[in-house]
Design goal:
Blueprint (H helix, E strand, L loop, with lengths): L3 E2 L10 H7 L1 H4 L11 H21 L7 E4 L2 H15 L6 E5 L4 H12 L3 E5 L9 H7 L4 E5 L13 H11 L2 E5 L16 E5 L10 E5 L27 H39 L3 E3 L10 E6 L4 H7 L3 E2 L1 E2 L1 E4 L2 E4 L1 H5 L4 H5 L1 E5 L6 H21 L4
Parallel strand pairs: 1-11, 3-4, 3-5, 5-6, 6-7
Antiparallel strand pairs: 2-8, 7-8, 9-10, 10-15, 12-15, 13-14
The protein binds pyridoxal-5'-phosphate.
Length: 384
């Protein structure tokens, strides 16, 4: 086998059905979707409105107008946090997030902190679940927003969204969730939240497109981050990229149709993979929550070997390790750190992601290769 892609949490290939749907909008139906005074513009707008409905349908939004197209989940998260912070700053300056949010939420939080907002980071359990008691305590009368991701991108843990939603509703505080790793994989309910971020390239759509769900009833208010022509109900100016919007819509449609089947397939892959690993290797630990977990993501720590070394031993298999190369030193993942996982075990971790185009053979091959390399590395190690 030449190259095997098992990094579906980092990105996914664009489904060819999505590409087919997009193609005409590059050079045939290229009208400006905001030029509705002529037919070409109106046809582009129609395509975009269809896509908006497809996105709304998948996440259970009641009105397609609640979908604001953005360039991705990074921008959607920035718009949610900065937008709410700026609009509601007279009410309070506290924003409650979790310790394991994606960098784009954490960094937006730090930027707001420098502007005088107060960012509270809620710790997580060893399984990566936010501490609900601490979260509830942190939502005081100065709090204006709670932002907790639906599914974590490193370990795949699903957060107790309904409970967090109940806490926020009860306290009258806005609730945002970064659902980039959840949409299309598990059922999400936009109506449980006030704001929800999604990303195209995590669900077999194109890169460079995403959306922010902004609830209409009751209407959630936010300040724009981008100013200009007032598109997207004034919340996100700029000419909409018709092909990308159409692609995101199609990706959402397919995800809705295939979610159940895909969940079953990916669960089988995960079980198969884990069986081979645990049958053949000692001292391997599963990171994350076994019960509240998306099916396609496995995060494992292989005691005594570095994740990076394993990856060097299997160059044909595309996976991720739990260390991030910041400058020249390897830093253990902040997510695993927040889950109180020992530094050495964080360094020995790998994230393996299965997806729509993964095959049985690839899963078996990858598992066997990892077993072989880990055994070899452990034999060579004087510490083992
Ligand atoms: C990928 C990802 C993002 C960033 O999405 P982009 O569309 O690439 O900007 C944000 N949050 C999570 C949880 C992600 O997995």
């Amino acid at each position: 086998m030449s190259e095997i892609y098992l990094d579906y949490q980092a990105t996914t290939p664009c489904d060819s059905r999505v590409v087919d749907e997009m193609l005409p909008y590059f050079n045939e139906e290229f009208g400006n979707p905001h030029s509705v005074n002529h037919a070409m513009g109106r046809r582009a707008k129609e395509a975009i409105e269809k896509a908006r409905s497809q996105v709304a349908e998948l996440i259970g939004a009641t009105d397609p107008k609640e979908i604001i197209f953005t360039s991705g989940a990074t921008e959607a998260n920035n718009l949610a946090l900065q937008g709410v912070a700026r609009f509601h700053r007279a009410k309070g300056k506290r924003i409650v997030i979790s310790e394991i949010e994606h960098k784009c939420v954490l960094e937006t939080g730090y930027a707001l902190e420098r502007e005088g907002f107060e960012i509270i980071k809620i710790p997580v359990s060893k399984k990566g679940v936010v501490d609900l008691r601490l979260l509830e305590e942190s939502v005081n009368d100065r709090a204006i927003l709670v932002s907790v991701m639906t599914v974590n991108n490193e370990v795949g843990t699903i957060q107790p969204i309904e409970e967090i939603s109940d806490i926020c509703r009860q306290k009258g505080v806005l609730f945002h969730t970064d659902a980039a790793q959840a949409v299309g994989k598990i059922t999400v309910e936009a109506s449980r939240t006030d704001l929800m971020s999604i990303s195209g390239h995590k669900i077999y759509g194109p890169k460079g497109i995403g959306a922010l769900y902004v609830q209409l009833k009751p209407r959630v208010r936010l300040s724009p981050v981008l100013f200009g022509g007032g598109q997207e109900r004034g919340m996100r100016s700029g000419t909409l990229p018709t092909p990308l919007c159409v692609g995101l819509g199609k990706a959402c449609e397919i995800a809705g149709q295939e979610m159940e089947n895909e969940q079953a397939r990916l669960t089988e892959f995960r079980e198969c993979f884990l069986k081979t690993i645990f049958d053949n290797l000692k001292k391997v630990y599963l990171n994350g929550d076994v019960e509240h977990h998306i099916p396609g993501c496995v995060n494992l720590s292989f005691d005594g070997v570095e994740g990076e070394s394993i990856m060097l031993g299997i160059p044909g298999i595309c996976i991720s390790s739990g260390s991030a190369c910041t400058s020249e030193i390897l830093e253990p993942s902040y997510v695993l750190k927040a889950m109180s996982i020992r530094d050495d075990l964080a360094h020995s971790s790998l994230r393996i992601g299965f997806g729509r185009f993964t095959t049985n053979e690839e899963v078996a091959y990858a598992a066997n290769q990892i077993v072989e390399v880990v055994n070899k590395l452990r034999e060579m190690s004087p510490l083992w």
